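Q: How would the structure tokens look for this protein?
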Amino acid sequence: MHAMQYEITLPADYDMGVIRKRVADKGHLLDAHPGLGLKAYLVRERGHQGSPVNQYAPFYLWRTAEGMNSFLWGPGFRGLSADFGRPAVHHWLGAGLARGSAAEAAETRAGTAGAAGTAEAAPTTATRDTVRLPEGVDPAEAVERALAELPAHPALHTAAVAVDPSRWELLTLALWHGPAPEDVPGARYQVLHLSRPELDRLPAGRHW
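A: Here is the predicted structure in token form.
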């Protein structure tokens, strides 16, 4: 599993309705992208939930490197770069995945009620927390601890733990159905859309 995110910070007076329309028009294009576990279309709005900026910051979990490459070298990322300038793409090695009650409820309802049931438990908010691992800290122990500390909350949809070994940065990204719990650390985002073509093929638990 590979985790990936880029952040497009926009002017303070930017009309975020432009981003919402973009996602509404184009978000479905990755709903069946091969090799993609999930793409969460994340935004932050200045003054909302403590955000100092307007930002479009999609987050990806890739099941295969081929799927990630086909996106980065394909028309989707090329079009985004043409509209906003080419952003720096942050990349982490996936280390663990947790499935929450909200995702399980979505899968259950999808089997009985169709697409409408899936939408009822779709994530609407996200949290992202990053910490540097000091020298002397065992990365494996830090990942195990991060997975163990994920809250057993009924609103949790999916959470991923990943590491950038070039900077020894530990990332925890969690998707929530409804407001994120106040005691969960990290930046807050709104989820405008979730593409999850191969999320069910990503193994739960630690990835080694």
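The first strand starts at residue 2 and ends at 6.

The two ends are 11 Å apart (CA to CA).

Upvote if useful.
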